[in-house]
Specification:
- 2 copies of one chain form a homodimer.
- By secondary structure, chain A is mainly beta.
- Helices cover 12% and strands 36% of the residues of chain A.
- In chain A, the strands form 3 sheets. In chain A, strands 2-1-6-5 form a 4-stranded mixed β-sheet, covered by helices on one side.
- In chain A, 38% of the residues are buried.
- Chains A and B meet through strand 1, strand 2, strand 5 and strand 7 of A and strand 1, strand 2, strand 5 and strand 7 of B.
Chain lengths: 124, 124
Amino acid sequence: MLKPDFAKGNGLVPAIVQDQASGEVLMLAYMNEQAFEQTMQTGQAHYYSRSRDTLWHKGGTSGHVQMVKSIRLDCDADTVLLIVEQVGQAACHKGYRSCFYRQITDSGVTYCSEKIFDPQEVYG
Amino acid sequence: MLKPDFAKGNGLVPAIVQDQASGEVLMLAYMNEQAFEQTMQTGQAHYYSRSRDTLWHKGGTSGHVQMVKSIRLDCDADTVLLIVEQVGQAACHKGYRSCFYRQITDSGVTYCSEKIFDPQEVYG
């Protein structure tokens, strides 16, 4: 059975998350073996939160889960790519569709991802 | 000037690479500050090779460089997203368009990225 190489990154692999409908890259998170297995078993994205040192069911509280449509592995098996349906449209806690909402240009920063909600109204 | 937070990952940040034309996620590599600055200055993707412990100009030898069209940063500034034009079409040394050419399913592995060249003919 093909699996990520968790040993290489001290138990963690990066997981890139891509929106199935738009193709937009939504975020990057990390998985340990338990998060990977939970994702495979439930069909919803689970990660390992490095800041909270715990398993993290993305959207488990808000209902804004990520329904996993495809799980892919790169050539050296040290990175995962999830293709998902993002419930609620916004992957980012800042309210943008994608966490990659800032573009760095020679003349400064431009914004490049749609704002779905105002975090001050939701979390404030 | 907005920059990646290199300190957080001991001097490195992961860089996701996405094909501008197809939207396909091509690969994940790592950047140190020098690689990021070289990428900004030259418009061609530069990474830090962890295995060779050196700056890596992707395609510098083969000519299969990545022309950078957009440099994006995520909400906590610890991951870069490059949107590129991949010269030569294949990002992966295995000959596939994307390094993420294997999909893990309940019934086994399926292939999900176009094969562009045969690595045995190119490197063999």
